[in-house]
Amino acid sequence: xxxxxxxxxxxxxxxxxxxxxxxxxxxxxxxxxxxxxxxxxxxxxxxxxxxxxxxxxxxxxxxxxxxxxxxxxxxxxxxxxxxxxxxxxxxxxxxxxxxxxxxxxxxxxxxxxxxxxxxxxxxxxxxxxxxxxxxxxxxxxxxxxxxxxxxxxxxxxxxxxxxxxxxxxxxxxxxxxxxxxxxxxxxxxxx
Length: 191
Ligand code: HEC
Ligand code: HEC
Ligand code: HEC
Ligand code: HEC
Ligand code: HEC
Hints:
Blueprint: H1 2-10, H2 15-35, H3 47-52, H4 57-60, H5 63-66, H6 75-82, H7 86-89, H8 100-110, H9 131-136, H10 141-145, H11 162-171, H12 177-184, H13 186-189
Helix pairs in contact: 6-8
Bound molecules: heme C (5 copies).
């Protein structure tokens, strides 16, 4: 796919033909992925409780501001808080009496086993999405991911397809033709 896009950039006249072709070969597989939602997570993480406690999105997903990937928290990050909550430690409540999802968390920590969160939002590997410029342009997480204060585990709010990216890039550059050229250029997202 990578090589294909390099080729696309050089021979722009063939693009239209290729889009049709690629839709046929890759559209199917991608479509299947997007219907399998929400995925079963190793642990049901309640966003609503944590966002309700005023914990910032960036505390758990710090990459969103500075890099391509927002990142997901490790169990150490969870435990920095959960290992100290008065409710469970002062006085100590036996782990067997904790809520089931917190028992799972305690087991991941005790066994030093990573929590393999299942991706919800994902672009195919021939697309490069970068959080940083979007946050720098003052877009809210909510614009693309919905209101997490009302969700437990993350669900797909928005079908992630090229039309969605392009529509917004067009809408945001109505007054800036130069930026529009850049944001609609194939090579901006495919390289
Ligand atoms: C900054 C502190 C903090 C961090 C970080 C944090 N939590 Fe929590 N979490 C809380 C507090 C406070 C509660 C509410 C207290 C309670 O009822 O247990 C809570 C509640 C929960 C609950 C619901 C428990 C119930 O009563 O059913 C789960 C499950 C949970 N957290 C899992 C996690 C996981 C997994 C992580 C890491 C991805 C995490 N938490 C990170 C503070 C935190
Ligand atoms: C312009 C739309 C957009 C905005 C705004 C946005 N995201 Fe995303 N987010 C995406 C897309 C698209 C993906 C899939 C990226 C991929 O597969 O590389 C994603 C993936 C993620 C992921 C999982 C994968 C990863 O990157 O680690 C997390 C977590 C996430 N976003 C959190 C956030 C948070 C927190 C904010 C706000 C600070 C935010 N996003 C703002 C579109 C957006
Ligand atoms: C205490 C930590 C914590 C906080 C605070 C938090 N999240 Fe998350 N987030 C997680 C964990 C753990 C997952 C993985 C489980 C899941 O997908 O539900 C996750 C998953 C996500 C995903 C899906 C990632 C993927 O795989 O595509 C998005 C989007 C997301 N969070 C956005 C947000 C936004 C927006 C906020 C703020 C309103 C926020 N989160 C606050 C811990 C947190
Ligand atoms: C809700 C609006 C919105 C959506 C949806 C969106 N973008 Fe963007 N995108 C922006 C804005 C605004 C900028 C920053 C423009 C600027 O430089 O001010 C941007 C910038 C970018 C850049 C950086 C361009 C550069 O300057 O090099 C890339 C790459 C990009 N977007 C890819 C994507 C992809 C891929 C998707 C879909 C998966 C997507 N965007 C969805 C609004 C959006
Ligand atoms: C703003 C980001 C962005 C720009 C600009 C962009 N694309 Fe895409 N493209 C995507 C995303 C995201 C996908 C994957 C989701 C999908 O298939 O719709 C994709 C998928 C594709 C596919 C695979 C189609 C399929 O159905 O799987 C082709 C071919 C493609 N793009 C060609 C192009 C060409 C040619 C251009 C320039 C005219 C272009 N793209 C510009 C984001 C972009």
